[in-house]
Amino acid sequence: MSRLPGLDLLRALAVVWVMLFHSFLVGGLGEDFAWLSRFGWAGVDLFFVLSGFLIGHQWLTPLSQGEAPRFGAFYARRAWRVLPAFLVVLAVYVAFPAWREAPGLQPWWQFATFTVNLLIDYGSNQAFSHAWSLCVEEHFYLVFPVLALALSRGATVTRTLCVCLGLAVGGVALRTGIWLMDDAAAPSRAWYVEDLYYPTWTRLDGLLAGVGLALVKVWRPAWWAAMMQRGTAALLLGLALVAAALWLFRDRTGLAANSVGWPLLSLGMAGLVVAGASPRSWIGRWTLPGMGWMAALSYSLYLSHKLVMHAVDQSLPATVTGLWRFGVFALAILAVGAALHYLVERPGLQWRDRSARRRDLVFHNAVR
Could you tell me which of 305, 331, 250 has the C-alpha nearest to residue 130? Predict the structure, then answer.
């Protein structure tokens, strides 16, 4: 799938929104901008929908054309995409404790095996805790290809819908049960984060919504074409659903938000992704300067921004305040994110692409 300016815009907005949310680590943006950063955690859910859509399309397209699945090539591409920058940042967290945004860090092997979102003691070890979302993504990469292959054999619309609805309803039931049990028991640990917010099995809604869009695009192209003609309507509907979900999340740890708020938010984000993919929508028809660059840097920015926030906060004198302080934070985060991207992430992607071309050549020669 070629790069689409609307999806680049959404990816850039998502990472900026998340970083604004994490500004609470350095005292926040002040009362005048609290409304802007309060719901920034939802940027991760937008990333999940984008990932479900893009990875789903990448895997489902060859299946729909009758091609044999290439698990090795898929996992190699994902590994080269994720691991180089991630391992560099993890090494910094492990080797330089003074640079961490929080003193406690889970054992390194939990990050390396992408199990930290399932094992974290959040009350004691909050450093690099934003890696939880990468764990969810990795678990998705492992399970989705197998599930998609199984469903593609004799798949019907009814069968696929039943699986998707079952996962969505199951998520609502699971989160409701966990919330009711923990609320009644009132454990002393950070149960909301550890039992509801971080675990993979409670955070599938965004990925599911993205995969649903990919299913429509691949298996029902006429439906997708009709959606592309109504990009602005999808944008308005998506914004309305996101607003309704965030209204529920006024009490972020409440039962209503954590039972039905997540699927509602994911549906709204799916509307935004449809608009981003549509050349007829307000956000899909124009290329905004800098958004493609920010989207390309988004992964490196996400990995490194907490380290940079902590370093700048420790270095800046208290006399630097307001917009000047915010500007220093922004420039430092962009500089480090760009360095990580160009020195580590991008070379890894280039090596991945060269390796993929060699594998494709070998594969095509073998099947002749």
Answer: 305
Number of domains in the chain: 1
Backbone dihedral region of 101: left (phi > 0), alpha (psi from -120 to 50 degrees) or beta? alpha
Whole-number Å distance between alpha carbons of 20 and 159: 41
DSSP class of residue 90? H
Phi/psi of residue 192, each to 5°? -60, -50
**110-148 pLDDT, tens digit each:** 999 999 999 999 999 999 999 999 999 999 999 999 988
Measure the CA–CA gap between 125 and 145, rounded to whole angstroms: 33
27 sits in the region (left: phi over 0; alpha: psi -120 to 50; else beta) called: left
Encoded tokens for 130: 């934003």
**Alpha-carbon gap, residue 181 to 178, rounded angstroms:** 5
Residue 148 CA to residue 87 CA, distance in Å, equals: 29
- Alpha-carbon distance of 18 to 38, in angstroms, equals 10
Closest CA to 10 of 319, 295, 368: 295
Q: Please, are residues 214 and 234 in contact by the beta-carbon 8 Å criterion? A: no
Domain that holds residue 125: 5-367
CA nearest neighbour of 48 among 208, 287, 240, 160: 208
Q: In the structure encoding, which two tokens stand for residue 128, read together?
A: 């690099």
pTM of the model: 0.94
> What is the mean pLDDT of the segment spanning 205-233?
96
What is d(CA 111, CA 96) in angstroms, rounded to the nearest whole number?
Answer: 16
CB atoms within 10 A of CB 178: 19
The C-alpha atoms of residue 160 and residue 212 are separated, in whole angstroms, by 9
Inter-residue contact 172 to 260 (CB < 8 Å) = yes
